[in-house]
Amino acid sequence: MGSLDGTRRIGRFTVERTLGNGGMGKVYLCRTPGGLRLAVKVISTELAHSHTGRVRFHREVEALRDVRSPYTLPLYDAQTATPPFWLASRYVEGPTLDEHVRRRGPLGERRVAELGAMLAEALAGVHAHGLIHRDLKPTNIILEDGEPRIIDFGIVRSHSATKGLTDPQSPPGTHGYVPAESLRGGEPTPAVDVFALGVVLAFAATGLLPFGHGLPATLRIYQGMPPRLTGVPPALASVVRACLSPAPAERPLPERLMAELGALVKPPPGPGRPPVRPPRQPTVPVADPPHHCHVPGPPAAGEGCALRPVAARLLASGLSRPLIRKAVLQHAR
């Protein structure tokens, strides 16, 4: 066992293989001495020896410790005192949203709305702890049994964080997901995560990014150009467009998004669900129905049909006319 770069152990964990490389370092699949699988992120040597890198790492560790949510992966352990710095969290085998869409195509409207409502709930939990993720994107969303798990809190920021802790030479997020106010150097607010969520939902619905890729996407956002939402279903497009508003104050809060996206999620007519039948209307007997009785013998002078009271009771009970006729004939015998 071991990774391709020769790493065999990280702390007390045994390395099985490399899961991926990121901006802050490498992520390995490891096992505890008891056999539990973990995802262990090891910070690169360069970042470990820089002030900015250490600050970002400690922020991520503290964020994972503070945010206890079903939509995030709990922190198992971390090495924060001396290099090499690493953190270990629960391993999820599911694909990222990016991988799922590229392999299987865009999601349907109902599925996108369902996913969006859960991601909005996840962001509400993150923001409730005074934190901003700042790098929400399909590659940072793992699908576990169809439910999202948000990972990579490497550039998370506190609402009240001190200025100057972000490296001015590195973009505060990913091209195409960062709103204009952040590109202009403004302090981040929870609205930056809502903007990124809008991009994620557009990608999930179409497989395309509304502003494109790379630096051209950043320029489109900076210049205030409208997003391209071709292919996004109208009801969903209205929600996405609100998330991508150039003005942070006009973007909906996660709680509102949960309600709006939840309204688009309609229960499917699954198997085993009993059909909805209209309520049964009571049979109203005719006040003075004409005499069509086939019982031998006409009624006595001045009297109605002798069987009419029986028929009236049967009609009142809700029986159909064929059954009433059968009952009448049986009574006559």
Automatic annotation (TrEMBL):
Gene3D superfamilies: Phosphorylase Kinase, domain 1 (3.30.200.20), Transferase(Phosphotransferase) domain 1 (1.10.510.10). ATP binds at residue 41. GO terms for molecular function: protein serine/threonine kinase activity. Keywords: ATP-binding, Kinase, Nucleotide-binding, Transferase. It is an enzyme of class 2 (transferase). Residues 13-265 form the Protein kinase domain. PANTHER family: MITOGEN-ACTIVATED PROTEIN KINASE KINASE KINASE 20-RELATED, SERINE_THREONINE-PROTEIN KINASE YBDM-RELATED. This is Serine/threonine-protein kinase. It comes from Streptomyces roseicoloratus.
